[in-house]
Amino acid sequence: MSRKPTIVLVHGAFAGGSGFRPVAERLVAAGYPVAAAPNPLRGLAFDTEQVRALLDSIEGPIVLVGHSYGGAVISAAALGNANVKALVYLAAFVPETGESVQALVEKYPGSTVGESLKPVRLPGGQVDLYIDPRVFHAHFAADLPTGEAEILAITQRPATAAALGEPASGPQAWHTIPNYHLISGGDRIIPPAAQEFMARRSGATVEVVEGASHLVFVSHPATTVALIDKAATEYA
């Protein structure tokens, strides 16, 4: 491989791009160009177009990484872009056409997301959803220190209820692009059984981090980077 691919990191709901800092620092130290894509969290089709525009601006090969809802975004945004050589899913949703993240989280028992959400009504009738800071640590980031989880709860990015309920439309890129899944074995947001189902369906290379929370990329940055590096070196 003549050049290292650009690693594009796409955050999910209730977490922003700043959460990727420990991962990005390691990737940069390893010589990778890195971009953290802003994910508006307004609607799946809208968010997909925003990320796709960034991908179109990048020259050369790309490894596209998505966490949680970001997995649904990259599954659509990568379609038709020949530069995207691998997809990496971090405790992520990997929908098939017609599936929403809401439907996938309800497919298996064990998620606390429904009881964790705090709605904020917006002008025009839309609703923003947050993880209630009172349960953020226990439900979203249980394997992080209390202080770090508190800061992440404060800086979380809300998603609209419409985005989480919007079905994936059109073909999904994981059918044709090699994909890798980091499964968080102690996840209380996306049940591990749901993650395993999606990984099997996509024919992924899988690694399980036993006991890891939904923020596996924050609590286990070295393991996360190792999987991204694997994807980057195997695609050729």
From TrEMBL:
Keyword field contains Hydrolase: yes
Keyword terms: Hydrolase
GO function terms (MF aspect): hydrolase activity
InterPro entries, A to Z: AB_hydrolase_1 (IPR000073), AB_hydrolase_fold (IPR029058), Sec-Metab_Biosynth_Hydrolase (IPR052897)
Annotated AB hydrolase-1 domain residues: 7-226
Designated name of the protein: Alpha/beta hydrolase
Lineage: Bacteria, Bacillati, Actinomycetota, Actinomycetes, Micromonosporales
